[in-house]
Amino acid sequence: MNARTMLQALRIGFAIACLCAFHSVRAGQFILLPEGNVTLIRATTVFNVDAPIALEPGDLLAIATQGSAQLEADGTIVALGSDTRIAVDAAPGGDSLALLAGWIKIARTKANAPFSIDTPTLQVALRDGVAVLHASRDATSLFLETGAMTLALPEHADAHQQLDGEHYAAREAGKPLDVSTRPASAFIAGMPRPFRDPLASVASVAASAKAKLIVPSQGRPATFADLVDWLTAPLGIRRSFVARFRPLAQGDPFRSQVRQNLRTLPDWRRVLCPPPAMPRRRAVVPAQTQSTEVNS
User: Fold this and answer.
1) What pLDDT sits at residue 279?
2) Residue 165 carries which DSSP code?
3) Could you give phi then psi for residue 25, rounded to 5 degrees?
4) 160-168 long-range CB contacts below 8 Å, 24 or more apart?
5) How many CB atoms lie within 10 A of CB 2?
6) pTM recorded for the entire structure
7) Could you give the CA distance from residue 184 to residue 143 in angstroms, rounded to a whole number?
8) Is residue 93 within 8 Å of 105, Cβ to Cβ?
9) What does the H/E/C string look like for 78-97?
């Protein structure tokens, strides 16, 4: 085989590998398309991501101060603003994100299942349409451009309120939900400028890159500083964190840092201070029944 034929064979092989990687991404799985650096925490490892990657349930993302990113799945586009902290969760019957802080814009065209967004003060389910959300630990605000969504308070998850297009909703922790037809001036002023434009898919650009970065190759163990905001987050995804990050608490400094913060991390108390083991019960051997039969 001459050099030209070998080069052509290598190109064909690489194209097939990229195509296989593209189709290996399961239906509904998000693809992260970063603009700038994104910090990814997968399992207990931290990665710096600057190229497209297929996300997994439980992935925690932090967008850099000067960065942005876009998530894409089948029929769903989510734009992420700078300084945004978000997690990919798994919800029965649909996709789900947990927004700890920052700005996102969602465009959803398929209505097979609701797309849910969990925030510290408000739970949102969007079947189809376009919406912009901002969240912090103490407040959530959103504007629904088109479509319809269902809202619920975390402490009253069974009480739902419907919201139609061109409506604004906001809620501070401990206060009732406020709904109006016009966004607050602070919401408009703080919204990232690119969110004023319609979202467009760019996933096709990442088709070949996904073969390179389906799984990050280099990372470091997560530290307490990486996780503390998530460990104390008033979000449903927090319930999985003790089991997930328990291996980190087997040694210092993570263990001692958790111990110093047990007041805000009560769910970790059983990890650091497990109850004493129950004493083993001694087996009771029944006394041998004595025969009362008289030999004749």
Assistant:
1) 72
2) S
3) -70, 120
4) 165/129, 167/143, 168/141, 168/142, 168/143, 168/144
5) 7
6) 0.82
7) 10
8) no
9) EEECCCCEEEEEEECCEEEE
Name the DSSP class of 261. Answer: T
| Token pair in block for residue 37 | 């650096």
- 32 CB-near residues (< 8 Å, 6+ apart): 38, 40, 49, 52, 53, 54, 55, 61, 69, 70, 71
Tokens, residue 22: 């593209």
> Two tokens at 279?
């004493």
Residue with the two structure tokens 């980190």: 248
Q: How far apart are CA 99 and CA 107, in angstroms?
A: 16
Tell me how long the chain is: 296
β-partners of residue 131 are 106, 144
Domains defined along the chain, listed by start: 28-203 (2.60.120.1440), 223-272 (no CATH)
Q: What is the pLDDT of residues 113-166, one digit of tens each?
A: 789 999 999 999 998 999 999 999 999 999 999 999 999 998 887 789 999 999
Q: Can you read off the two tokens belonging to residue 134? A: 């901002």
